[in-house]
Amino acid sequence: MPASSESLEMYLEDIYVLSQELDVVRPVDLAKKMGFSKPTISEWMGKLRDQGYVEPDNGTGLHLTPKGEAIAISVYERHVLLCNLFCAMGVSPETAEEDACRVEHYISAETFECMKSFYATLNK
To answer: Crossing angle of helices 27-34/5-21, nearest 10°?
Structure first.
């Protein structure tokens, strides 16, 4: 059974973010970050492994495959830009973070590219 797109993206993005902060990303770290139980994380890691997005790292950690990392980086890029743009518009950082988490999964590639260009002009 394929993972839902939004859930898949959330897991991959969180693994990516944790991998930037930690030497080894363990399932317990992911459970803590996402606020999910260890059994839920284990179930999802099985799904993501089966679909070729993650692989075990030295038996105790999680490692994104190139396929998983490409998706994670794309989602994270959308998240960061949306959060920055919302803040530049005057949205509070807390609300910008929450809204970016929702919008990043549904925004079209065309709209995102236009937002990137627009945001770049704001920062010249």
So the answer is: 110
Neighbours of 66 (CB within 10 A): 8
List the one residue out of 5, 3, 9, 4 whose CA is nearest residue 73: 9
Please tell me the number of Cα atoms within 13 Å of 90 on its side-chain side: 0
Cβ contact 86:99 at 8 Å:
yes
- Mind listing the pLDDT tens digit for each residue in 108-118? 999 999 999 99
How many Å apart are CA 117 and CA 64, to the nearest integer?
29
Tell me, what amino acid is at 97? E
Distance, in Å, from the CA atom of 59 to the CA atom of 55, rounded to the nearest integer, reads: 9
Q: How far apart are CA 85 and CA 122, in angstroms?
A: 9
